[in-house]
Amino acid sequence: MNPTIHELMASLPEQVTHHIQHLERMRQDFVANVSHELRTPLTVMHGYLESLLSQNRDETQPWKKIFTQMQQQTIRMENLIEDLLLLSRLESQDDENAISEAVDVTSLLKAICHDAEEFSAEAKHHIKIQADTKLFLLGNSSELRSLFSNIIFNAVKYTPPDGHIDIQWHYVDKKSHFSVCDTGIGIAKEHIPRITERFYRVDPARSRASGGTGLGLAIAKHVLLRHQATLTIESELNKGSQFTCVFPLQRTKKIS
Ligand SMILES: Nc1ncnc2c1ncn2[C@@H]1O[C@H](COP(=O)(O)OP(=O)(O)OP(=O)(O)O)[C@@H](O)[C@H]1O
Ligand SMILES: [Mg+2]
After folding, report:
1. Whose Cα sits closest to atom 1 in ligand 1?
2. Sheet holding 164-172: strands in order across?
3. Domain boundaries 5-92, CATH class
4. pLDDT digits (tens, 9 = 90+) for 21-40
5. Atom 17 (ligand 1): residue with closest C-alpha?
6. Helix (H) or strand (E) holding 46
7. Where do the structural domains in the chain lie, given as residue ranges?
8. What is the CATH number of domain 101-254?
9. What is the pTM (predicted TM-score) of this model?
10. Which of 59, 101, 110, 156 has an alpha carbon 20 to 30 Å from 180's alpha carbon atom?
């Protein structure tokens, strides 16, 4: 078996390890700083475009389509920047432990499902949720929201209209299991190990057209790491996929 990154690092001389850590911090800072610097100019552009479009004046009518497209693209860039900033916040928090509040996962999932149904709209997916209402998680609610929403919204995005999406939240073998099963397009075997990498998409054109940044599962992976949880992906092309997150006992809280 290949050594893990931690095992590799431990086998290197201390000076080399320090240098690698320094470079890694520089990379993280660079991404965070660029993202932060881009935020203000984008907000200004977005603001001007919004007021141009809302004024609805005769002289701007011939440009309306162009302004609308510009506005959509600024929104895409803003989403990208927010995701990059979230990712660098998750990366730069030194301790690998997310803070521990008791999170009512069932309520969280119900709220996300409601948004997912709105997102599905005309496609009319059949979204079903089965959850143990007494099963809570000790974790960070906003991080967990990002994790669950991305997996659920992916199921909607990559499942054709009228498809089925089943969400489960259960306690099995002293662990908490969150799973999402869809009847969607599926993922070919060779892509599965790579889809949690930043910007990795099986079909870049399709994913971009659906408005994604390609950072969702990279964020999900970091959140899982910070909650000592694991992700397994099972999928079959043209049949569907199942994403399962398993949280350890110390993250589980049973409410009586
Ligand atoms: N349920 C699914 N069915 C089929 N393919 C999937 C599924 N979930 C993820 N994928 C594939 O994995 C890729 C990465 O997913 P990820 O969530 O990281 O990015 P995204 O959905 O394209 O964008 P976003 O950052 O908005 O989530 C997707 O582009 C898609 O190709
Ligand atoms: Mg996604």
Report:
1. 155
2. 126-131, 164-172, 175-182, 240-247, 230-236
3. mainly alpha
4. 899 889 989 999 999 999 99
5. 216
6. helix 14-55
7. 5-92, 101-254
8. 3.30.565.10
9. 0.89
10. 101
